[in-house]
Design brief:
single chain, 189 residues, alpha+beta, PH-domain like, 2 domains, 5-stranded mixed β-sheet, 4-stranded antiparallel β-sheet, 11 strands, 30% strand
Length: 189
């Protein structure tokens, strides 16, 4: 018998906390004003990914559930406490999403489990990385030709500081199908 697993988070500073309880055959979502029970067999897809956190905060882990009919539901690891204050609830998120993916796959063998960003989001990260590398390349050419404007040092430094983050997202978040019983190592960490 599957034990109940729970996770709760506040998605934005302007919303209520959402509680998620996963039973053997249904997901219960409760935000304090509305309670929904979603049979696991009606979840047709799960996309799991992580993205850089704001500033120096922890990575934001997300699971986007696609329901029969096309509606989506997002579960994330970051809980918003207030303006510029977050709490990382990765521990309960990890346990919840691992159990959710396994139970959805069992309840609906046709459900698609995907890891990584959507193709559109991943392509935007790739374009940002290519643009940043072009800026750095141009800066190197200008430095070599002794034509580099000193006023641009700050801007080039900011671009350079974000290249490692962009590279990690492009390298690790390419969308791809995944075995629900073997999610890639590090995805939920």
């Amino acid at each position: 018998m599957d034990e109940e697993v729970a996770h709760a988070f506040r998605p934005t500073i302007f919303s209520r906390e959402r509680g998620f309880r996963l039973g053997a055959d249904a997901l219960v979502v409760d935000d304090g004003s509305e309670r929904r029970t979603i049979p696991l067999a009606q979840i047709t897809g799960v996309r799991v990914y992580k993205q850089p956190g704001a500033g120096f905060g922890p990575a934001i882990r997300r699971a986007v559930l696609t329901l029969a009919g096309g509606a989506t539901l997002v579960v994330q690891s970051t809980h918003y406490l207030g303006f510029a204050r977050t709490e990382d609830r990765a521990a309960s998120y990890r346990a919840f999403v691992a159990a959710l993916v396994a139970r959805v796959a069992r309840a609906n063998p046709g459900a698609r489990v995907t890891v990584g960003h959507s193709w559109l989001a991943w392509s935007m990260w790739l374009a940002l990385l290519v643009g940043a590398l072009a800026v750095l390349g141009l800066a190197a050419v200008l430095v070599a030709s002794r034509d580099f404007p000193i006023a641009a040092v700050l801007y080039v430094g900011i671009v350079a500081a974000f290249v490692p983050t962009m590279w990690r997202v492009v390298r690790d978040s390419r969308p791809r199908a995944s075995d629900p019983n073997a999610l890639p190592a590090g995805l939920l960490d």
